[in-house]
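Appendix B, Record 12. Input sequence as logged:
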Amino acid sequence: MTDFLKLNLKQLSDGLAAGQFSSTEITKAFLQQIRGRDISVHAFLDVFEGTALDDAHASDERRAAGKSLGALDGIPLAIKDNILIQDQRATAGSKILANYRAAYDATVISSLKKQGSVFLGKTNMDEFAMGSSTERSAYGPTKNPYDLARVPGGSSGGSAAAVAAEMAPAALGSDTGGSIRQPASFCGIVGFKPSYGAVSRSGLMAMASSLDQIGPMTKTVEDAAMLFDAIRGTDVLDQTTQEIPFSFEAKQSMAGIRIGVPKQAWGEGMTPGVRAQSEAALAVAERMGAKLVDIDLPYAAEALAVYYVLMPCEVSANLSRFDGMRYGVRDAGLPLIETYMQSREHGLGEEVRRRIMLGTYALSKGYYDAYYRQARRVQTLIRRAYRDAFKNVDLIATPTAPSIAFRLGEKLSDPLAMYLEDVYTVGVNVAGLPAISIPCGLDDGLPVGFQLIGAMGGDGAVLSNAHVLEQALA
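Logged structural output:
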């Protein structure tokens, strides 16, 4: 009997195409796994058991009639709860949206529906994607499948945990400062953040619009390429989208590939175990034919500061709509201003309120030039530094996170320590670049992630070379 839970996306797709099993069989297996495993992990906020089985049955009927919609037809997926699926609840992990149901599909969901994908449910996340541990959800924390006393990372921790715990073969997450890659690292899976504009953000609840990007979270790099190819493309509903040429090559070596090793990312700050596993991954890349090049990446240290100015500024603007009047829970009071204040105080969590206040302050009169405008200037310098670096190298390598998964509650009372979890990932978002996290070993029994960063539009190169390294590390 086939153990569907052990199969990756490509294997499931090939098996369906060959008629070895049905979408209904696959979907039932994952739903059963969710029922048994999610009691302890809490990766899902909603499970669509009825509609998932209906969609799986419809897929089987299409295949029987010779009308398959493609490689993803009948494949079950998990979706982060800030991505809209029409008529389904969409909370973004927030109390203020506890009863909100989406009026339309996100563009990525429309694309997947056209290809026959089956949606298992919506996954837990830090409220409005603000966090690095999935402890900031209004509906309780998700736990790391490797160790239930530890966090899965965030903010896409539910999606990462769902894949790692074999409750879904793949999932969608969103990445604003590392929210796909860091939980992928903590949970021992693959997480890919595409170039900014490669995937439509229409129907993604905006956190920081100039930084947000939807991407795949999978068991293998090949699966990530497959899912990315299914959701990428231009969209009239998102004017920041652009057509980026893409091809994935299952290469056997990294011959001729120059990998930049920035001194700013390989100094102090990472734990000894992360350093050892990451350096071992670099050595494997060198054995596979890559040339390691020491590089200087100016303003790398400033990227975290730039991110934590720009992101709260955009948060303060994007979340102004959640006021108890237009969306979500309303806590009525008199005069009207009390309704606004009480709805936001009771409906929004501590971290969300903190970032709204920081952003409002940075955008206020007298501080706009000192904070927001200055951060934009430094952002330009960071983009220029990456552009200059890629004149001499093809990829840049860093650890994904400075540590392995930390314990639940360990950093909740120290926002700065939590923010520092993003130190290796935020620069990618500030510059709009593609990047991937792949597993590179274990430290004290917990996964370590290794990050490869590409030039703008170099999504195919990142995925193709990450595939080589993944195979060599396996």
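The two ends are 25 Å apart (CA to CA).
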